[in-house]
Each structure stands twice: as C-alpha cells, then as structure tokens.
C-alpha cells in the first residue's frame, strides 16, 4: 500500500473540534430517493461549515466511468466541475462540531483510503463514525419511515428494529470504511433509510429526515430539520395525489401496508430473510428502468 498520508491535505488552520463525530455521506453507492444527498446538502446549507481536509481525487477517481461536467457556451468552455472528496467541519445548532465526509466514492485504493481516514480520525480526535445510506425496500410511504441500523457494538443501536436477517450485499467504500474503523476499535455505525421501491428514483425527503434524526440521536447533535419537513409534506401530498389517480399503484401500496402491519405486529417475517442476497446497484438500476418503461406515457396518468 502507498503511504496513506500522501492521499490528503489538511487545512493550515482548523477550529477547535473537541471530540467530533465523523459522518460518512459519500456519493456513488445506492441512494434510493436521493435521501443521503438530500440529508447531506441540507446539513451543509443550514449549518455553518468549512472544508478542513481534501483528498487527492486524481488518485481515487475514474474519470471515464463518471465523467465530470463541463459547461460549453457558444464557442468556448466556460467551466469545469472538478470532483471534490473532502471533510467539512460543521457546527450544529448548539455550536457543537461534527465532521462530514462528502464527495464521490473512491473507484480505487479503498484500503489506502480507509487507512488515510484512520490517520485523520486519530489526528482530529474523532470519537465515532456514522454512515448514511438509503435503499429501496418493499415498504409503503404511508407508514413511519424505517431504517436498518448496524454497528460494531449492539449498544450503539439499541432500540432499533431488526428488519433484515443475514444477507449478502454489494460492498461500498463507505461500508468498508465502517468495517475497518470498527475493527480498529472506533465506535462505528450506520443507518440505511428504507425508501418505498416505487419512489426510489425520485427525491424522497421523508427518508432524509429519518437519516438526520438517526444522526442527531447517535451523535447527540442538534440538527434543524424545518426545511426538510416542509419538503417532505409537499412530496407526500404529491405522492398521495398520484396514488389516488392509479388503481394499480394504489393496490400495490395497500398490499405493502398489509405486509408492513403484519411485520410490525410480529405476525410476519422480516423484510429480508436470512440467506437472501440484496441486489447490486446495477441490478437495482435495471429494475428501475424496467419499472419506468411499463408506466403510462405523458398523455396518460403520470407515474409516481
């Protein structure tokens, strides 16, 4: 492995952080309902934040797989949107600092990246890692938002319902980071918001609220959610309107409600049984495309 210290640069001056929580909210893995992005962007927009660590993206990013955007204006290139992988120092509403890791999931050098973050954890006095994620599940939007909680110590996620048994899942750099840092002794946990599969390709602010609430609880942080709550209310009204306009979609939602209620009452099995395999990001994307291709056209009832 190449020296992990050569993978990042720390700002010349950083604030007094205390013992912050490090929040992992990388792009690139499954993000149903764009919940992780919505939660991350919300925190950066409503709280004071500054970049204190930048990573050498050229070492980690596959430009041909995820081509950055450039703006062409008439006869010249106006701008280039360079990818940035960074750690922000963010202050919650009470003035308590936490760290937010944002940017594209590394395409390569995962172990070196994890080792680099471990160095930063030590250097910045990080006391806990919290990962944010969102996955499509067979749940209805009319029931309380669920979340799959995981940690290297059961005490860190006490009180959360176990919705999933033993399963095989495609890995991500964020999950591997949680695994490596947890094995090294750092309190490491993560939350995957359960997004109704029929809404997974749309923005779903309700799931972002779930993630922010879980983060606030785990890290003892004061995180405002007014803007997200307004967005969730508007989104819910639009979803309900479209469900009412389609008997087929309404039937799916009612079936999911019955399943959810049976599981919540202890009469049903888990949402994902032991021994199952969750689909990869590519498989989920293909399934979404298949679903959308079967929906009515622009002259018919608009799909959800």
Explained architecture:
With 304 residues, the chain is an alpha/beta fold. It has one domain (4-293): PAC-like subunit (Rossmann fold), CATH 3.40.50.10900. The chain contains seven helices and twelve strands. The strands form three sheets. It has an eight-stranded mixed β-sheet, with helices on both faces. Strands 4-5 form a two-stranded antiparallel sheet. β6 (86-91) and β7 form a beta hairpin. α1 (35-46) packs across α4 (205-219), α2 (110-124) packs across α3 and α4 packs antiparallel against α5. The longest helix has 19 residues, at 226-244. The radius of gyration is 20 Å and the shape is globular. The N and C termini lie far apart (47 Å).
Feature tags:
304 residues, alpha/beta, Rossmann fold, 8-stranded mixed β-sheet, 7 helices, 12 strands, globular
Order of helices and strands: EEHEEEEEHEEEHEHHHEH
Q: How much strand content do the residues show?
A: 15-25%
Sheet of most strands: 8 strands, mixed
The largest beta-sheet arranges its strands as: 1-3-6-7-2-8-11-9
Rg, Cα atoms, Å: 20 Å
Q: Give the low-pLDDT segments.
A: 273-285, 295-304
CATH class: Alpha Beta
- The proportion of residues forming helix, as a percent range, comes to 25-40%
Structural class: alpha/beta
**Proper CATH architecture:** 3-Layer(aba) Sandwich
CATH superfamily: PAC-like subunit
């Amino acid at each position: 492995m190449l020296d992990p210290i050569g993978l990042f640069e720390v700002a010349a001056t950083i604030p007094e952080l205390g013992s912050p929580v490090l929040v992992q909210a990388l792009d690139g893995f499954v993000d149903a309902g764009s919940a992780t992005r919505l939660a991350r962007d919300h925190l950066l927009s409503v709280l004071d934040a500054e970049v204190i660590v930048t990573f050498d993206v050229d070492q980690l990013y596959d430009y041909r797989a995820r081509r950055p955007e450039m703006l062409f204006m008439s006869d010249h290139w106006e701008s280039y949107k360079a990818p940035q992988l960074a750690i922000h120092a963010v202050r919650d509403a009470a003035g308590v600092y936490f760290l937010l890791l944002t940017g594209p999931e590394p395409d390569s050098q995962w172990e070196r990246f994890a080792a680099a973050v471990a160095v930063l954890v030590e250097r910045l006095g990080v006391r806990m890692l919290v990962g944010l994620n969102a996955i499509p599940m067979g749940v209805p939007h009319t029931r309380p938002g669920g979340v799959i909680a995981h940690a290297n110590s059961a005490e860190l996620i006490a009180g959360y319902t176990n919705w999933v048994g033993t399963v095989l899942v495609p890995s991500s750099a964020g999950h591997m980071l949680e695994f490596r840092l947890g094995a090294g002794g750092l309190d490491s946990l993560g939350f995957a918001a359960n997004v109704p599969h029929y809404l997974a390709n749309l923005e779903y602010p309700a799931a972002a609220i779930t993630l922010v609430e879980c983060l606030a609880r785990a890290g003892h942080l004061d995180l405002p959610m007014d803007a997200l709550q307004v967005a969730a209310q508007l989104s819910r009204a639009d979803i309900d309107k479209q469900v009412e306009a389609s008997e087929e979609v309404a039937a799916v939602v009612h079936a999911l409600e019955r399943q959810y209620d049976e599981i919540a009452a202890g009469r049903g099995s888990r949402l994902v049984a032991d021994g199952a395999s969750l689909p990869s990001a590519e498989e989920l994307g293909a399934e979404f495309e298949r679903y959308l291709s079967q929906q009515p056209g622009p002259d018919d009832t608009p799909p959800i």
